[in-house]
Inverse folding.
């Protein structure tokens, strides 16, 4: 945990690392934001919307493995945080599009780097996991 208590009992940030200088009362909210933007589905939705607005069915098609429930929940949470907009058009049949906001566009470069890193290193990580699993099972 990043925060600790000083002598008077008020929260202060630790003296070094990524939490240095962040007031203790902000840390819970910062962890919530990191949980949200660091979630695998949020990262993939943001990266997928980079090219422009998409309809729900297009997002579901372009993000392999995401269930309807998870896509709906992820879009709702990203919208609540101001990272995605939802625009409903008064047409028949109704059309709804999702798009990135300026706030999420500032996050998008980081998202692309994380996804790229995972893609570049997935073989190595898979080998490490296999080695760790084999090591654990051979010890028993």
């Amino acid at each position: 945990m990043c925060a600790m208590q000083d002598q008077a009992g008020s929260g202060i940030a630790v003296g070094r690392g990524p939490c240095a200088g962040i007031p203790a009362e902000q840390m819970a909210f910062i962890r919530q934001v990191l949980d949200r933007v660091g979630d695998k589905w949020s990262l993939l939705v943001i990266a997928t919307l980079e090219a422009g607005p998409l309809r729900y069915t297009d997002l579901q098609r372009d993000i392999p493995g995401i269930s309807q429930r998870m896509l709906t929940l992820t879009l709702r949470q990203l919208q609540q945080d101001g990272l995605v907009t939802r625009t409903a058009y008064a047409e028949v049949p109704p059309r709804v599009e999702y798009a990135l906001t300026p706030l999420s566009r500032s996050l998008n470069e980081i998202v692309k780097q994380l996804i790229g890193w995972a893609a570049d290193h997935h073989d190595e990580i898979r080998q490490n996991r296999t080695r760790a699993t084999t090591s654990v099972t051979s010890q028993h």
Summary: The mean pLDDT is 86. Helices lie at 24-38, 40-48, 56-62, 68-80, 102-139. The first strand starts at residue 3 and ends at 5.
